Amino acid sequence: MNEKELKTRLVDRYMRSAASMQELEVFVHLYQKGELDEIMHAYLDEQIRELPDQELPRRRWSRWAATAAAAVAVVAGGWWYLSAPEPAVSVLVETQPRETKEIRLPDGSVVWLNGNSRLRYPEALSGESREVTLEQGEAWFSVFHDSRHFHVLTPDRLKIDVLGTEFNVRLRPGETSVFLEKGKVAVSAGTGRREMAPGDLMAYDSKRGHMSVSRDGAAEWAAWKRDLFVFDDAALSDVGKALEDYYGIRVRIEDNLARKRFTGKVSRKNLDVVLQVIARTLQINTARRDSTVILRK
Fold first, then answer.
1. Do 98 and 169 reside in the same domain of the chain?
2. Are 173 and 154 in contact (CB under 8 A)?
3. 224-244 burial string, b = 16+ CB within 10 Å, else e?
4. Confidence of residue 231 (pLDDT cuts 50, 70, 90)
5. pTM (2 decimals)?
6. What distance in Å separates the CA atoms of residue 112 and residue 30, rounded to the nearest whole number?
7. Where among 83, 110, 139 does a domain terminate?
8. Which residues form a coiled coil (predicted)?
9. Looking at CB atoms within 10 Å, which of 34, 91, 110, 164 has the fewest?
10. Residue numbers of the domain that contains 278
């Protein structure tokens, strides 16, 4: 088979949408160089000859023009397909209740994912801007420092701009908390933007669109990486939320105990032990019914 026969076969396979990806690349290359013009015209003339004889010449010309236009459109479409960037492939990492994971991102950054959490990031994670999304739960980020910006996104449209740092992000219904251990981050939501310094705790109320920053210690926020609960004068309602987040249970607080304060450090390995420590410290009673824990007087 000579060169002309090969090109004729290539045009025929292309026009019948039977070309492989490799053939499509060759076709577009030759078409752009004008090496297929003669064969394309011959192919289209053949299509005209196959039209019914009773059609008027003007009608036949219109049909030919339409066929030619379609051919050009197909070529343009094929070139777009070849030159367009491939859609980004994302990686989803999930943890079950009581499970934690350490994730090493493609750029060298490390993420520790707390229990009952979900993180999504692009498989490549390259370019001038690197974005990951914490879709649920809690994560500790240790971000690799380079000239490109690293961004963490959350479902409530909070954006955390990072440049070489360590920080914790926790999502709860209606509120996102960001604790910065070292480095520097800027948190933005809507038109608001706040820069954080080490030791800052930012709380974002998504319902009101309000951000507030206070000072806090790293002990509570980093404790879960060591499989510990650490509470420092925490409201019992916040303790209950922490238990719900990690164990995947429901905590019901009765007898107006929600504002009672609790301070303590305890391993997360055994829920019953955690409940005993809380009960003895606050002198309250606890009960378990299936997946519900009840705290009462």
1. yes
2. no
3. beeeebbbeebbbeebbbbbb
4. very high
5. 0.68
6. 51
7. 83
8. none
9. 34
10. 227-296
